[in-house]
Amino acid sequence: MLISFAIAQPLINAFVHGTRFLEARLSDVPLRGLVSGTLGLMAGLVVSLLIIPAVKTLPLIGAYMPLFIMLVLGYLGASMGYRWRDALVALPDTLIAHMSKRPERKPRKEVAKGAGDLAADFLPGTRPKVLDTSVIIDGRIVDIARSGFLEGPLIITPYVLDELRHIADSADALKRNRGRRGLDVLNDLRECGVQVVTLNKDYPEIVEVDAKLVMLAKDLQGCVVTNDYNLNKVASFQNVEVLNVNELAGAIKTVVLPGETMRVEVVGRGKGAHQGVGYLDDGTMIVVEGGRDRVGETLDVVVTSVIQTNAGRMIFVRLED
Questions:
Q1: Is 60 left (phi over 0), alpha (psi -120 to 50) or beta?
Q2: Most exposed: 66, 68, 131, 245, by fewest CB within 10 Å?
Q3: Full strand arrangement of the beta sheet holding 312-319
Q4: Domains of the chain
Q5: Which range is most confident: 123-127, 149-153, 260-264?
């Protein structure tokens, strides 16, 4: 009796811990994943029942093969069902839509092949635009959308939301503020009148978030919106269109040529002995020769040169008089 109790107690503890671990893992799985995984498991078990009678008669290993086959095919069925969860969940709606389609109408062209029923959520004639974490934290996407130069749908993914949440919970104050600003930007986007779609489509075989965004944009036949240099290069290499906010900002900067005149307000002193500093409306720095002692004044100046640096563009001017 004591021996049985000593053996049973560790087994019970292991069973309880295993059950709690399984419950914790399943609580993070979305409902569609549970449904599709269960259907896949049932399909795998049905196939195993068809195979077991043929292998039970094998010598030596015949007695062990049924359990082995059920475990392997059950696992494969559950895994494949979870991987194809979007297509399985969307299958009834697709069949109903196909059966109710009028014969005299031409079938609509599928906008996003391989993306389940996602095309039905998008406006006809528009291209989905997948937002990455950097462009959301940057915040300029809100002004671009509000001005009407960027139409929807704008795609937000759960893994981008997870990145923003981790940044917002960071112990570093700077990162924490950037993450919270990104979450505020998402709320501002929904108030701009642009279609914003939270798309729960994952690629479990891909680890990096940037690679998932590129694959999603390719599946949706859309484009990636970013200001990340590396993501820009990777997406371009895979023939995925990229909308780079930094390139847009550089393209709309005011064009000035040497010899042109302008008016500029001197707002501070420059690094040079006689230099003052001003700015254009787009943030371009203007270095005013002879403006060091004219802070606070609005002066008529003449452009002498324009220099492009890694930090941006600088315009050098001198006083017109």
A1: left
A2: 68
A3: 261-265, 298-309, 312-319, 285-289, 275-279, 268-269
A4: 15-107 (no CATH), 118-251 (3.40.50.1010), 261-319 (2.40.50.140)
A5: 260-264
pLDDT of residue 86: 59
Helix (H) or strand (E) holding 17: helix 2-27
Burial 287-296 (b: 16+ CB within 10 A, else e): bbbbbbebee
Bridge partners, 279 (sequence order): 285
Digit-coded pLDDT (tens) for 253-265: 777 888 888 888 9
Question: Is the confidence at residue 207, as pLDDT, over 50?
Answer: yes
DSSP secondary structure string for all residues of 220-269: TT-EEEE--HHHHHHHHHTT-EEEEHHHHHHHTSPP--TT-EEEEE--EE
pLDDT at 67: 80
Encode 40-93 in three state secondary structure. HHHHHHHHHHHHHHHHCCCCCCCCCHHHHHHHHHHHHHHHHHHHCHHHHHHHHH
Average pLDDT, stretch 226-230? 87
The tens digit of pLDDT for each residue in 153-178 reads: 899 998 899 999 999 888 888 888 98
Residue 70, Cα to own-chain centre: how many angstroms? 38
Distances (CA, A) of 119 to 100, 113, 257: 18, 9, 47
Tokens 């949440």 — which residue? 165
At 84-95, the pLDDT tens digits run 665 655 556 555
Grade residue 316 by pLDDT with cuts at 50, 70 and 90.
very high
Amino acid at 249: A
Closest CA to 162 of 202, 119, 115, 122: 202
Q: Which residues contact 235 (CB under 8 A, 6 or more apart)?
A: 214, 217, 224, 226, 241, 242
